[in-house]
Amino acid sequence: MPADRAPTRIQQKNRAAILDAALDVFSAQGFRGATVDQIASAAGLSKPNLLYYFPSKEAIHAAVLEQLLDTWLDPLRALDPEGEPLEEILAYMRRKLEMSRDLPRESRLFANEIVQGAPRIHDVLSTDLKQLVDEKAAVLEAWADAGRIARVHPYHLIFSIWSLTQHYADFDVQVRAVLGDEDPFAAAPEFLETLYRRLLTPPARA
Amino acid sequence: MPADRAPTRIQQKNRAAILDAALDVFSAQGFRGATVDQIASAAGLSKPNLLYYFPSKEAIHAAVLEQLLDTWLDPLRALDPEGEPLEEILAYMRRKLEMSRDLPRESRLFANEIVQGAPRIHDVLSTDLKQLVDEKAAVLEAWADAGRIARVHPYHLIFSIWSLTQHYADFDVQVRAVLGDEDPFAAAPEFLETLYRRLLTPPARA
DNA sequence: GTTTGATTTGACCAAAAGGTCAAACGCACG
DNA sequence: CGTGCGTTTGACCTTTTGGTCAAATCAAAC
Question: Which of A44, A176, B62, B196 has the most CB atoms around it within 10 Å of its CB?
């Protein structure tokens, strides 16, 4: 790879193709399961050519992961402390569910990484992620204090949104094996909306 | 390996040690990520010695997986159509949560397999698992028909129990990174019980 | 159109990893 | 206490895989 100058058109195209191919392969096979050859041919390149753009398999993985983390937390960041509590939470859940439907590879890449102990992103989890969740949990707590939502453990509430929505991407094959023909994303939104409305609607005032 | 006779004490001990070590390694690294050497040394054996008991890495993995599937569905099987609906569902959720706490390796092995497309257990999912879920979903449906629980999509209800409980095992490092010192399993049972009580308590009679 | 730097490739290397085998070892039973 | 079968191992083989390199090719600026 040439020095750091403005990337040529070819560089842009090939780097993008590599990252996309790598997302495909890493999300489907995990880091160790993926081979450089697989990624290269999925990107339409030879292995040495791929390694002309990235110095190593590790580097490709790091790049894909960095790109993912960049957007992964956006839905939670967008939870607005000034908004209507229940609607904000429902909107967050919907955004996460849409990500499971539209970006399942990203979800599975993340799942692969976490399930195997998050060796490469443990830092981000305990700093950036923790900080963000702490902040939003405080918002949820304040809403409960104000009686605007029912009081539940705010961290577990957030975990529940993660697990319920990501399940449809990460465990896709299981869900589809059980549902048969039915599209998982047909009934999921309504089910989850009902669930969170019933969980969080504040008790009637005395 | 000698012919199929009654297994000697040494055979029993070593096979058990291998399966336990393999569960350790496979659940932490996935199939491709695990090496036969790792499993062997985790079991306190040399690689050729391990391969004296199992013919291949695949065979070890199959054995571990088979052992897992054998018990993985027990909690759902135990859901009693004759029991009190809400209590039956809560008890099922609790059993699954206990499995996440007590058998996290098993949960992660399963998660690894599913996330990567379940190449080796797809059959079981679309036959045994589907059949069991169909059966229990019908029970849930009947309970809703009788007005004994609120009506929700029975399949998604089951998915929700899977995802909410397994999350604590599969995403353990993330949960702990966010919670800091707090034990995830301290508040989870109450949170989940509240969630399902509010979701499923039938609407007051008119 | 030639030159220069970017891009691509075939050939190659070394390490890792799954698996084999013959020989050595050891336990238990006659 | 020796023999036979179950067990263990060191040495070795082959394939896969991450990575290198020099040479060939291509694109575009001059």
Answer: B196
* Strand C within 7 A of B56 CB: yes
Residue among A114, A178, A198 minimizing CB distance to B133: A178
Å: A22 CA to C8 C1': 20
Task: Please compute, for residue B87, the number of CA atoms within 13 A of its CA located in the half-sphere on the CB side.
Answer: 4
A156–B188 C-beta distance less than 8 A: yes
The C-alpha atoms of residue B9 and residue B14 are separated, in whole angstroms, by 9
Q: Give B-chain residues touching A133 at CB under 8 angstroms.
A: 178
Using a cut of 0.90, tell me whether the model's pTM lies above it. Answer: yes
Contact flag, residue A87 CB and nucleic strand D, below 7 A: no
B159 touches chain A (CB under 8 A): yes
Could you check: is the Cβ of residue B48 within 7 Å of any atom of nucleic acid strand D?
Answer: yes
**Cβ of residue A116 closer than 8 Å to a chain B Cβ:** yes
- Taking a C-beta distance cutoff of 8 angstroms, is the pair B120, B103 a contact? no
Instruction: Please list, in sequence order, all residues whose beta carbon lies within 8 angstroms of the beta carbon of residue B177, skipping any fewer than 6 positions away.
Output: A118, A122, A125, A126, A129, A130
Render pLDDT for A18-68 as a digit per residue (tens, 0 to 9): 999 999 999 999 999 999 999 999 999 999 999 999 999 999 999 999 999
Q: For residue B63, is pLDDT > 60?
A: yes
Domains of chain B, start order: 1-55 (1.10.10.60), 66-205 (1.10.357.10)
- pLDDT tens for each residue of B104-115: 999 999 999 999
Closest CA to A122 of A65, A59, A63: A65
pLDDT tens by residue, chain A, 206 residues: 666 667 788 888 999 999 999 999 999 999 999 999 999 999 999 999 999 999 999 999 999 999 999 899 999 999 999 999 999 999 999 999 999 999 999 999 999 999 999 999 999 999 999 999 999 999 999 999 999 999 999 999 999 999 999 999 999 999 999 999 999 999 999 999 999 999 999 987 65
By Cβ distance, the residue of A32, A157, A167 closest to B32 is: A32
